[in-house]
Amino acid sequence: MNKDKRIAILSRLREANPTPTTELEFSSPFELLIAVLLSAQATDVSVNKATKGLFAAAPTPSAMLALGVDGVKQHIKTIGLFNTKAENVIKTCQILQDQHGGQVPENREALEALPGVGRKTANVVLNTAFGWPTIAVDTHIFRVSNRMKFAPGKNVDEVEQKLLKVVPAEFKIDVHHWLILHGRYTCVARKPKCGSCIIEDLCEFKEKTE
Ligand code: SF4
């Protein structure tokens, strides 16, 4: 795909949704970190249902530590992998408390050192809580980037590097949300909704649906 087409796609996505953001509900970097940690292999809707009560009971690392692993489990047991996630939440809170003064560090290395936090989660937190131009590649972004030939790559790391290279600076902060939302609601996995896609004329997928 050439540069002009990519810019046209991004411009159109921006026009349709000028201020995109995550569908996870949060009111602080700490809540965003925990919500993203819980969202692995779970929908944002299911995470939001669980975090409503969890964040009301424990909006800070120290309050989460007071809740303990079993207390966290009570709030998140409707989410997949809740046992491991509850343990990671508590271990993460302990590190935040001991090493970062109870704050979420604005630092990739420190974020990736937290239990249950990988590159993707760190990218989301750096982007959405701190405004860094990082691009977290999840299953939706991976699929959409390859399908449209927007930023093809064999794995999520390759797609991330390609996106960082080809997306102009003015679009970098928001591209992650535009592509996720496009993949979640229009360019869906099984049968993309090409007939109602706002970038259909620009997309280079060869097997478009009606
Ligand atoms: S035209 Fe179809 S394949 Fe291309 S981006 Fe739109 S929904 Fe996806």
Automatic annotation (TrEMBL):
Names of required cofactors: [4Fe-4S] cluster
Keyword Phosphoprotein: no
Taxonomy, superkingdom: Bacteria
Entry GO MF terms: class I DNA-(apurinic or apyrimidinic site) endonuclease activity
E.C. code: 4.2.99.18
InterPro entries per the UniProt record, alphabetical: DNA_glycosylase, Endonuclease-III-like_CS2, Endonuclease3_FeS-loop_motif, Endouclease-III_FeS-bd_BS, HhH-GPD_domain, HhH_base_excis_C, HhH_motif, Nth
Reaction equation(s) it catalyzes: 2'-deoxyribonucleotide-(2'-deoxyribose 5'-phosphate)-2'-deoxyribonucleotide-DNA = a 3'-end 2'-deoxyribonucleotide-(2,3-dehydro-2,3-deoxyribose 5'-phosphate)-DNA + a 5'-end 5'-phospho-2'-deoxyribonucleoside-DNA + H(+)
Bound cofactor: record note: Binds 1 [4Fe-4S] cluster.
PROSITE patterns: ENDONUCLEASE_III_1, ENDONUCLEASE_III_2
Domain HhH-GPD: 38-185
Family named by the database record: Belongs to the Nth/MutY family.
Protein's job: DNA repair enzyme that has both DNA N-glycosylase activity and AP-lyase activity. The DNA N-glycosylase activity releases various damaged pyrimidines from DNA by cleaving the N-glycosidic bond, leaving an AP (apurinic/apyrimidinic) site. The AP-lyase activity cleaves the phosphodiester bond 3' to the AP site by a beta-elimination, leaving a 3'-terminal unsaturated sugar and a product with a terminal 5'-phosphate.
Protein name: Endonuclease III
Protein species of origin: Rheinheimera tilapiae
